[in-house]
Amino acid sequence: MVISYPFIFSACWNKIIEVVDLRTYEKVQVLRGHQSIVNKLLIRNDILYSCSADKTIRKWDISEESIHGDMSIKAMFIYKGHSSKVTDVVMINGKLWSGDENGDILIWEESTGVILESFKLGFPIKNILGHNDQVYVSK
Predict the structure, then answer these.
(1) Which of 9, 11, 82, 131 is 20 to 30 A removed from 57 (C-alpha atoms)?
(2) What's the pLDDT tens digit per position in 41-86?
(3) Cα–Cα distance measured from residue 64 to residue 67, given in angstroms and rounded to the nearest whole number
(4) Contact 62, 7 (CB under 8 A)
């Protein structure tokens, strides 16, 4: 679950992301597109990133105009490259980092979806954290 006022975004086991307006407490949008459980959410400005057990990361426009628009929101971009469930997605120094159950970490060019680097660790990735130009990974 993440907040970008005035909205709260909730990752769901049933492949969707629910959007609730905190001013009215009403569900105002449902983001659909993932083929399996949505594991984590990340917000940067008016962009939401979601990672899923379907081995993908999706990029969504979550501007207030999009959320309250008449049409359902479609993913702006789908990042593909993982071979197992994507368990975390973070932004570190302007690059998108993601980890999966196989222990792979991929570093993406956010705007193009090109994989810049990849690392194979010996354990499933649970969390990735960037701090002071250091990257920490937990299993």
Answers:
(1) 131
(2) 999 999 999 999 999 999 999 998 888 877 788 999 999 999 999 9
(3) 5
(4) yes
Q: How far apart are CA 132 and CA 138, in angstroms?
A: 17
Structure tokens, 35: 């083929």
Q: Using CA atoms, how far apart are residues 98 and 111, in angstroms rounded to an integer?
A: 15
What does the pLDDT look like over 5-48, one tens digit per residue?
999 999 988 999 999 999 999 999 999 999 999 999 999 999 99
pTM: 0.94
CA 125 – CA 60 distance, rounded (Å): 24
Helix (H) or strand (E) holding 66: helix 64-67
Under DSSP, is residue 3 helix (H, G, I), strand (E, B) or coil? Answer: strand
